[in-house]
Write a structure and sequence with these properties.
There is one protein chain. The longest helix has 14 residues. The protein is built from 5 helices and 6 strands. 37% of the residues lie in helices and 16% in strands. A hairpin with a 5-residue loop joins strand 4 and strand 5. The protein is globular, with a radius of gyration of 17 Å. Bound molecules: zinc ion (ZN) (2 copies). One zinc ion binds next to helix 5. One zinc ion (ZN) binds next to loops.
């Protein structure tokens, strides 16, 4: 059973078949799915599930802090169930692949933020670059 479902049950979230299908889709390591991707996979489990239900549930899970919303700069919002461990993302600018990376970047936000009088409660960094496969592909093309 997925971690997410266990966490949601513990919070007393009512697990409907629709919610269960969505939670099952969002089970795994290194998972970053667009809303459309979640709809597509949820329909493999529960063919009748509507797009609106998936969107609403995703927004609810994000609001609850059980699913992270990741913005990679390329437009689409991605949903990430790895919400219990603070992490950053490596985003390949060639193939779009995303990887979680646990990195301690010093524990606090950069000092330059102090002058904005903004209380920082957390941050995550998107590292843009090339994944191993794309680096190899580029090297082979040369
Ligand atoms: Zn790549
Ligand atoms: Zn992630």
């Amino acid at each position: 059973m997925s971690d997410l479902i266990v966490r949601l049950r513990a919070r007393g979230w009512r697990i409907t078949p629709q919610r269960q299908a969505i939670a099952l889709v969002l089970d795994g390591e290194n998972l970053h799915l667009s809303a459309e991707g979640v709809v597509e996979r949820a329909r493999r489990i529960l063919p009748g599930i509507s797009m609106a239900t998936v969107y609403n549930t995703l927004n609810e899970l994000v609001a609850m802090g059980e699913v992270l919303e990741v913005s990679t700069g390329s437009g689409a919002r991605l949903f990430d169930p790895n919400a219990t461990h603070a992490h950053h993302h490596l985003v390949c600018s060639a193939c779009g692949e995303i990887h979680d990376v646990q990195a301690d970047l010093g524990g606090r936000a950069p000092d330059m933020l102090d002058r904005h009088d903004f209380l920082v409660t957390g941050y995550s960094v998107v590292f843009n670059g090339l994944c191993q496969n794309c680096q190899a592909r580029r090297a082979a093309e040369r």
